[in-house]
Amino acid sequence: MGEAPSVCPFSSHAKPMKLFRFFAALLLVLGCHAAAAAQISPADSATLLSIYQANRQVRTIQCPFQHDLTKRGETSARFGTLYIERLKTEHPNDIEAKIAMRYSNPEGEFYIITATDLYNGISGHDWHFTLRPGKSSLWKQLGNAMAWAVIGDVLQLMENFNTKLTIASDSQTHTVTLDSSKGFNKGVSRIVMKYDRHSGLIQYLELREKFGSTHKYFLGIDEKGRRHSPRINHSVDQSVYVVKD
């Protein structure tokens, strides 16, 4: 897996070839997302590129997670295991990664997105939507939003949801916030992502719904509060993406 540049490409210590490769990659990525890139400063563009590059070779991710759900002023904690696997897509509207959130507490709950289906089995509100290949839909966009956040493709999020970008960085973390006064046109008003500054991997994801509920996902945290490094590019048991009748 690639890593964020250890030497700032704008420093006097950066080698000419490294500078060339950096700007070539920057132009390629920004060129693919011209509408979103036009809103971004050069410094923020460099940060997003480092996150994107660090995740380019990530094919699968598996890690424990804590999910704090705040609804009507009350917060409840859930725990489980997250599985993500990139997909090869033939159409820009298709799902770019399979996602399975398998909860151990409450046991048996799940949230699953595949190339063809979206399943929600959380809090007793079970539902299922079929995702048609090559066809755009609300549920595909929401499914891809989580996938793009986890695999570090923030420009895709901006381009698809017409949002305002804010980046705050410290010595350990890049915090990327996307806000939309239109609620992303899909009911979500804010997405916050925290990426490890050294590995580029996501550590935290927050989804704030337009009508008040907030989902906070702490990746790599188990039910006992212990931190775990994610398993990267290991084979994933495909049964985690299957919902049994």
Structure description:
By secondary structure, the chain is of the alpha+beta class. The protein has a single domain (16-241), classed as outer membrane lipoprotein receptor (LolB), chain A (Clam). 23% of the residues lie in helices and 36% in strands. It is built from five helices and twelve strands. Strands 1, 2, 3, 4, 5, 6, 7, 8, 9, 10, 11 and 12 form a twelve-stranded antiparallel β-sheet that branches. α4 (138-150) runs antiparallel to α5 (154-161). The longest helix is centred in the N-terminal third of the chain and has 17 residues, at 16-32. The radius of gyration is 18 Å and the shape is globular. The N and C termini lie far apart (37 Å). Residues 1-15 and 18-32 have low confidence and may be disordered.
Distance between the termini: 37 Å
The biggest sheet amounts to:
12 strands, antiparallel
- Uncertain runs are 1-15, 18-32
**CATH arch. level architecture:** Clam
Structural class: alpha+beta
- What is the total tally of β strands? 12
Query: What count of structural domains?
Result: 1
Q: What is the CA-atom radius of gyration, in angstroms?
A: 18 Å
Strand content: 35-45%
CATH topology: outer membrane lipoprotein receptor (LolB), chain A
Q: What is the CATH homology-level superfamily?
A: Lipoprotein localisation LolA/LolB/LppX
Q: So how many helices?
A: 5
Please state the overall shape, judged from the principal axes of the Cα atoms.
globular
Please trace the helix and strand order, writing H or E for each element.
HHHEEEEEEHHEEEEEE
> Which CATH C-level class is it?
Mainly Beta
The percent of residues in helical segments reads 10-25%
Round the mean pLDDT to the nearest integer and report it: 81
